[in-house]
Every structure is written in C-alpha cells, then in structure tokens.
Design brief:
By secondary structure, the protein is α/β, with parallel strands linked by helices. It has 10 helices and 8 strands. The model has no long low-confidence stretch (mean pLDDT 97).
Length: 266
C-alpha cells in the first residue's frame, strides 16, 4: 500500500473552514486527506469528500484514534463512529494518535485492537503517530514493523527528529511529516527565503520539497485556495545537495506540538 507523498492536513480547521479547504484541495488535485477524531471535523471532511464527486478509489483518507478510545473494547466502536462521520465503509489508514498518556495502557493492547479493526475491514492499513523509539519498539513487538504503514511525527527544518527518523529507516517504517511548514515559521527563515528566490519558488515550496526529497509524506494545511495550489507545486521542485545540506543545518529541536500528556521525547 502506497501512501501518497502529498496530502492535505486538517488540524485546527473547523466547520465551513475545513469544508472549504478539503473541497478546494480535492478540486485542485489533492487525493490524500488527513483528519483525526480529536480534530472534531470528520463529518465536514466526509461531506466535502461526498460532495466532491471524486471516486472513492482515487482517495486516500487517514484518521487517528484518540487516547480515550484506546481500551480494547472501545477502539473498534470509535473507529466505526469515525467511518459514520466520514461516510466511508473503510478508511485507508488509521493511526494511534499518541501513545497512551503516562503509558496507562500497554501499546500491545491498543495496537492489537487496531490490528483487529484492520482484520474486520474497517481500515486498509494501520500506523502510529507521536511515538518515541521505546513506543515504536513495543509497536514492532506487538504487530511487526511490516504492519506499521507509517509513523506520523512533527518534522520541519527546525525540528528534524533525527533519532526517531533513523530508527524508522533502520526498521523500514515510512514517515509522514506533520506541521512541515512549522506553522508558517519557514516563511521567515532567511536561508529558506534565499533558496526559494534562487528557484523562483516560495519558502513553503522549498520546505515541502526538502521533506519530499527525504522520502517523507508531507501533509500541509491551508485555508487559502491559492496556497493549496502553490503547495502542490513543491512536488516539481528539486533542491541541490548543497541546498539540502544548508536546510539540514537549521535543525534546532524547535518542537511545536508537545501537549502536557506527550511522552518524553527522544
């Protein structure tokens, strides 16, 4: 199963905003849509998909199980509720959104339940998000690395998450980079601005191309149709080895997503 390298994120988008973003994205050619139970927008994402007229077979839809549904008896009912909201018979990928807060529940319990959901045909693939190396080791022990379709983590020029990336590569686990534009901070970075100018591109396109060239799937979000269209053009941008090396030097462990229940990061 191939995860499309370019997707549309929907974090923090609500109501009409997410309806417009997904509708515009699908019209512009996006086919990978990323949502989550906690975003509170699965119904609108489902409506935008239904109204788009894009054949289901062309779409790749990801959702994520929230921490309150990890218990073995809760996970499958919660995923069925997500499917009802999304108006889909199955999703293409379901992720465990975070490790269980304080490790209250073992990884094997909730990944086992997700594997059962896959066996029941509710999701085509399963994966994880925001896992540490220790959590990834437990996930591999529970279901096998080959079953983990992706690990979705925060990756952008200012947080390159090298230890976790190296571990995933060593075990053949694909990576999806969320917040690839660091919430717009890449636009203000002089190094990225200079590289963008040299290519007649935008700083956002440079940051996305940097992620794509490393083999990550990227899932930027935007509410503006012109930005959604511009972001897609990052796929045609090729950065030189020297430019990639310059961006690699921008790593400063600047993490944006770290709620109070987050694990102890590597």
């Amino acid at each position: 199963m191939q995860i499309p390298a370019f997707g549309l994120g929907t974090f923090r988008l609500k109501g009409q905003q997410v309806l417009d973003s997904v509708s515009n994205g699908l019209a512009l050619g996006y086919r990978h849509i990323d949502t989550a139970q906690i975003y509170g927008n699965e119904s609108e994402v489902g409506q935008a998909i239904a109204d788009s007229g894009v054949p289901r077979g062309e779409l790749f839809v990801t959702t994520k199980i929230w921490t309150d549904a990890f218990a073995g008896d809760k996970l499958i009912p919660s995923l069925k509720e997500s499917l009802r909201k999304l108006r889909l018979e199955k999703v293409d990928l379901t992720l465990i959104h975070w490790p269980s807060p304080g490790d209250a529940l073992p990884v094997a319990e909730y990944l086992g339940a997700l594997a059962e959901a896959k066996a029941q045909g509710l999701t085509a693939a399963l994966g994880v998000s925001n896992f540490t190396i220790a959590h990834l080791q437990q996930a591999i022990a529970a279901v096998g690395a080959v079953e983990i379709a992706t690990h979705q983590i925060e990756i952008h020029p200012f947080l390159q998450n090298r230890k976790v990336v190296a571990f995933c590569r060593e075990h053949g686990i694909h990576l999806t980079a969320y917040m690839p534009l660091a919430y717009g901070k890449v636009m203000q970075e002089p190094v990225i601005q200079r590289i963008a100018e040299a290519h007649g591109a935008s700083p956002a396109q440079v940051a996305l191309a940097w992620g794509l060239q490393q083999g990550y799937a990227v899932i930027p979000s935007s509410t503006k149709r012109e930005n959604l269209a511009a972001n897609l053009k990052a796929q045609a941008l090729k950065l030189s080895e020297a430019e990639m090396a310059e961006i690699a030097k921008l790593d400063r462990n600047e993490r944006i997503a770290s709620p109070d229940f987050a694990p102890k990061w590597d």
